[in-house]
Amino acid sequence: MTREEMNTLVDKTVRSAVENVCGTMLGCEVVVGKTRQIGHPLQESDGVVALLGMAGPWVGTGALTCKPELACKLAGAFLLTEYDTVNDDVLDAVAELANMVIGNLKVAIEEEVGEMGLSTPTTIFGASFTTKIGGSEEWTLIPVEVCGGELLVQVCILPNDRGKANNRADLVGHMLVRG
Amino acid sequence: MSGAEKTGGPMPLDVLVVDDSAAIRKILQRVLAQTELPLGTILEAGDGLEAIERLKANNIGLVLSDINMPNMDGIELLRKMRQNPQWKSIPVVMITTEGSQQKVMEAVDLGAAGYVRKPFTADQIKEKLAGLV
């Protein structure tokens, strides 16, 4: 599978997974925007980021990013409770949404390239922090309008040059967070 | 005495929900509470190891379990349950994003009673449990 074919698979699968997850679990209207390929691995953020690693014949990371206000709305729709501030429930809800979206992507990828591992989600909440995925050079960015805000889904996945499945514990080591 | 005992209906089953996501545990608690199935206490565990402790301390009649969890995953939990004479006949429904054919086959081979893929609807959960309770 070429990187172009993988990017097409990521785009198609993430769009479908976001619509399915948000429609089923949040009951919100979802508008998936235009996909972009972004060449820089750095991302500055104020808000909530949920990250999951994938490893196998291909290796990479999926991330969901949104502002705190949207994280509260997403958690509220998910858990049928109102949240005014980001707390453990909100972070857990965003993590689970990421797990479902990236989990569906992982299943679609392994149908094409063979068995893949998926890490458990890592969530980060704060202001003026930067995330960097080690070694990444190309991300697929898919903006999603949901619950009155913008959710960004970003995926970076590359062929695994080592040619063997990585241990799940390796995955978290790919991420750097700078405050 | 429970309502089911008074009316001579089936004994309510205590249910164990196993998922490392507190959000999913809350949603499943809500879905289970809304069913008209004869369910008793709904207990929670955050991974397979915690689930084993709950199984030892309670009379669990049904388990809903995620697969991808830290410490002990759902496949290993299912394997341990099938190896234990006390727990081997307890129905286990896997609820997970791990929808690959290999994981499905592994869970089925170990005797999983069913499989629901995330995201799920309340009706999908109710339908899956209706045949087991």
How would you characterize this protein structure?
The complex is a heterodimer of chains A (179) and B (133). In chain A, helix 1 crosses helix 3 and helix 2 (68-79) packs across helix 3 (88-113). With 179 residues, chain A is of the alpha+beta class. The longest helix of chain A is centred in the middle third of the chain and has 26 residues, at 88-113. In chain A, strands 1, 2, 3, 4, 5, 6, 7, 8 and 9 form a nine-stranded antiparallel sheet that branches. Chain A has helices at residues 3-26, 68-79, 88-113, 168-172, and strands at 30-32, 36-38, 42-55, 58-66, 117-118, 122-133, 139-146, 149-159, 175-178. Chain A is built from four helices and nine strands. Chain B is α/β, with parallel strands linked by helices and 133 residues long. Chain B contains six helices and five strands. A five-stranded parallel sheet of chain B has the order 2-1-3-4-5, with helices on both faces. In chain B, helix 4 links the parallel strand 3 (60-65) and strand 4. Chain B starts with a helix and ends with a helix. The model of chain B is unreliable at 1-6 (pLDDT under 50). The A-B interface holds A 20-21, 24-25, 75, 78-80, 88-89, 92-93, 95-96, 99-100, 103-104, 106-107, 110-111, 115, 118, 120 and B 20-24, 26-27, 30, 68-70, 96-100, 102, 118-121.
